[in-house]
Amino acid sequence: MREMKSIFKASNVVKLVFIVLTYLLVQFLINIGIITDYYQTTLATICINIILAVSLNLVTGFTGQFSLGHAGFMAIGAYACAIITLKNPTYAGFIQGVAAGAILSAIVGVAVGLPTLRLRGDYLAIATLGMAEIIRIIFTNLKITNGAAGLQGIPRFINWTWLFVFTAATLIIISNFIKSSHGRACIAIREDEIAAEAMGINTTKYKVAAFVIGAFFAGVAGALYASYFYFLKPNIFNFAKSVDILVIVVLGGMGSLTGSVLGAAILALISTFLQRFSEVRMIIYSLILIIIMLFRPQGIMGSRELSLSLFKRAASKIEPKVGKERS
Amino acid sequence: MEQFLQQVINGISLGSIYALVALGYTMVYGIINLINFAHCDIYMIGAYVGYYCMTFLGLGVFASLVISMAACVVIGVAIEKIAYKPLRNSPRITVLITAIGVSLFLEYVTMFFMKANVRSYPPLTGILAENINLGSIFISMKQILIVVITIVLVVLLQIIVRHTKLGKAMRAVSLDKDAAELMGINVNNTISFTFALGSALAGAAGVLVGIYYNSINPLMGVIPGLKAFVAAVFGGIGLIPGAFIGGYFIGAVEVFVAGYGNSMYRDAVVFAILIVILIVKPAGLLGKNTREKV
Amino acid sequence: MKKFLSITLCALLAVSLLVGCGQNANQPEQGNTATESDEIKIGVNYELSGEVATYGQSSVDGIELAIKQVNEAGGVNGKKIKLVKYDNKSEPSEATSIATKLITQDKVVAVLGPATSGSFKATIPVAMSNKVPVASGSATADDVTVDASGVKEFAFRICFNDSYQGTAMATYAKTKFNATKAALISDSSSDYAKGLAENFIKTFEGDGGTIVAHESYVSGDTDFNAIITNIKSKQFDVLFVPGYYNEAGLIIKQVRDQGINVPVLGADGFDSPVLLELAGAKALNDVYFSNHYSSLDQDPLVQEFIEDFKAEYNREPDAFNALGYDLANFVVDGIKRTADLTSENLQKSLASTTDFKGVTGSFSIDENNNPVKAIVVVGLKDGQQHSSEKVSN
Fold first, then answer.
1. Of the four, A143, C285, C321, C346, which is 20 to 30 A from C24 by CA?
2. Residue whose C-alpha is closest to residue B267's, from A146, C226, C197
3. Mind telling me how many Å the CA of A266 is from chain C's nearest CA?
4. Using the 8-state DSSP alphabet, how is residue A5 labeled?
5. How confident is the model at residue C31, as a pLDDT?
């Protein structure tokens, strides 16, 4: 990808420092025992959800193509990685698994995207929903996936370091894509497809491109999921999972990558916090969802990104710690 | 041949349920372009109200049906007023997420009060418990009851939509909300009325499912809801006859794939047909393809 | 771009800080010790919402009844048992997360649940690395406690595994009904039913029988008329329905409605009053299923449990209730026999359980952490338990 080059520009060195600092800080907290095993599991869920949400945001939030089938791509990545690491339980096997999962998922993305992306709005949503259900049913009936019972004992190769690397890489690549001329084309399609076409943008090409990149990273997220949580079964990737991802995107703000990051974190925290309420957990969760949507229909960030100026404006409300970090 | 006829009968009974639920989806979509995910849970609540009426109040089938429809009307309209109306001018996807929230809320509130386990309707007595044998073909009275009630309700619905003032208002609002408002139609009331009609049908479907399969649970609406929505899209979303035909079509496909193919791929075939239809004729079987204007 | 990324990372950082706060900094040592307090904490990690909430909730009802009785009787060695209960939403990843939470944060001595094999398997690696026993009352898949890599010392279960029951029912069909042809309608969405079906077929065909039809459904289905119409045209002596009561009840009803009158066989998933409600008394004739116990059993332990359960919840207990009840008592029994209560010592006590008297039968734990139990085949007549015979493989 051409956009990848921009990672090595001088201005990005500063970012690299931040990435390393963030990583080191969390690693430090893990080492001294402030972030325990349990919170690491939550952290893993957050990272995987960030990758899923950011990749769906590219399709739905930035390109305006309403997809309800993200769990299907996640399933492909997860199963590919699980099957390969079960056969070859080494780091090399794991890397192959992630790569195979992501590429396979992208290929299915092309196959599904080419015919269905001609559809608009809700029709596309239904078609992608159908596609994800078909993928799930196929996995339920295949021998190699061990059907409905699922795969167990998948070796865990990833830890916080891997998750962090993958999450950061996904964010960088997708944000670079969006800032590139290709990304601008996608946003133009979201704003007005006909006008974009009139401006000479090959709308099909960009829609499929966004869709395939989205599928690719959903595959990565699935692979990470498989490697972190030991166990897979097709029902994990049902319609509810696609909806969960969509909820993160909408809650964070359509067309806002930082929004997706915040959304993933907030929802994971809410969900973790509610575990202790056992039977009433889902009631509270649904109420929170409804109330947030009623009072903040554009999501937390709208289509804006968290940026310095935004921080300056709201500086008084922000913890000094966060303020210091960004300088 | 006998097996084929038996499968046709199975398909018609199943299709009736899908048709009733699909009608609610299609009407709501037609009027406010919302995939009302909570609709399948109204169907579930209808089943529970019917269960309550028959088990604890000892009411008959028809009384339970009417009470259940009434209860669903109240719930449907309340949901519209509380959760959807404030979002009328928000992005559609926001309303969709709200609908998902409402759906989860209804499911888990019911689960909290009724527990997750399956409940069963009391056995029917008298003529409704009979089976009719035609050679080796079995038709239960329940199947006949379901089909008859479905057809009666759909005819009633058509009369309301075609020949009453409110029905005319519904059609006007679904065609052009702003123009309808200019013509003096109370758009809010019309939308509420649409929700009321759809919810009543879902409530009826819930009771009929309870009677037919005798098994209800708080998550019973999820899968049939998805399929009923597929039925609505298949027939042409927003079109009442489309939902009706779509419901029976999906019922028949399911039964025949299960009966003659592999029952495990039943749902996959339904979705595959849906995708093909969407690609070939996105507006659905009865829908008119509209060209988008600049 | 730069701003954006740095802010993103700040957000990540802030989040990880948030996640980390409110935490005491002691590094979890291997294994959990019962603290000096007068409580013993046991974790409860069950499906209280989501697709299999019905199994999870039923199990928890049994567990809570058992613990209530233990505490009313004065607790264990003067200490009360405290249940720490969380909902895993029927999701394996959530089950992993909750097992981690119970073991590393709440410092429980043992974790009960989840109810289904898949979610239970997802918690075993956590149990193994922290050396805290986990026990399930209903994870029946063959490879739960032992697989190619060896025995998972910290995972226990108290139910039959699938091959045991599947084989027993195939033999029963042969000996009792002289069956040579069988049809199956099996739940392909649960590993429980899949395991039963596989082993039934293996044994039945191994004894010279033929399977004339094998249809599948997924849990939550309610319409089986199409597949029943399909198998009706075939000739068979018995119909085997591996699956749970929710669907089995409907299948039996629809099978009988369509005029198929051969014996229907099933496994312990049939054991619930719901089966009768769903199928109706008229359809429940000539139905036989393997089970841990029969309510005809005059053992006072069984009768007492049935009465206590009715008094507490105002309904008849089902298999999940009974297994949950036994599971809790099994772990309490282990705790009683552990002098110095740490989770590692508790594991040793549980593994050495012999002749534990539960309502689902007496059992000992074998070298693979599975129970050795007798199997009972219960026959139904007009919906009531009519006959019961002990069978062995």
1. C346
2. C226
3. 8
4. G
5. 64
For the stretch A176-208, pLDDT in tens is 999 999 999 999 999 998 899 999 999 999 999
Chain C positions touching A5 (Cβ under 8 A) are none
pLDDT at site C34: 55
Extents of the domains making up chain A: 38-326
Question: ipTM for the complex?
Answer: 0.88
Name the helix (H) or strand (E) containing B134: strand B131-134
pLDDT in tens, A90-117: 999 999 999 999 999 999 999 999 988 8
Our CA angle for C235, C239, C241, nearest 5°, is 150
Q: Best residue in C15, C26, C59 to probe A by mutation, most A CBs within 10 Å?
A: C15
Question: How confident is residue C96, by pLDDT bands cut at 50, 70 and 90?
Answer: very high
Side chain identity at residue B237, one-letter code: I
**Which other chains touch chain C, taking contact as 3+ CB pairs less than 8 Å apart?**
A, B
Distance CA C298, CA A179 (A): 76
State chain B's mean pLDDT as an integer: 90
Domain at A38-326, CATH class: mainly alpha
Interface of B with C (CB under 8 A): 3, 6-7, 10-11, 13-14, 108, 111, 115-120, 123, 131, 133, 136, 138, 140, 209, 213-215, 217, 219-220, 223, 254-256, 258-260, 262-264
Q: What amino acid occupies position B132?
A: I
Before A297, cis peptide (omega within 30)? Answer: no
Q: Kindly state the average pLDDT of the residues B26-33.
A: 90
Residue C53 · residue C363 · CB < 8 Å: no
Q: Give how far B109 is from chain C: nearest CA, Å.
A: 11
A295-305 pLDDT, tens digit each: 888 888 888 87
- Domains and their CATH numbers in chain C: 39-160+300-374 (3.40.50.2300), 162-291 (3.40.50.2300)
Contact yes or no for C26 and A172 at CB 8 A: no
pTM value is 0.85
**Res C24 pLDDT > 50:** no
Out of C19, C118, C125, the one facing A39 most closely (by C-beta) is C19
B124 or C378, greater pLDDT: C378
Chain C residue at shortest CA distance from A227: C93
B143-171 pLDDT per residue, tens? 999 999 999 999 999 999 999 999 999 99
Q: What are φ and ψ of residue C375, in 5° steps?
A: -115, 140
Q: At what angle do helices A70-87 and A239-252 cross, to 10 degrees?
A: 120
Ranking B290-294, C41-45, C299-303 by mean pLDDT, the lowest is B290-294
Distance CA A300, CA A258 (A): 10
Give the chain A residue nearest B29 (alpha carbons): A122
- The residue behind tokens 């061990």 is A146
Angstrom distance (rounded) from CA B16 to CA B211: 13
Q: List Cβ neighbours of A91 (8 Å cut-off, separation of 6 or more).
A: A157
Torsion, Cα C308 C312 C318 C323, to 10 degrees, reads: -70
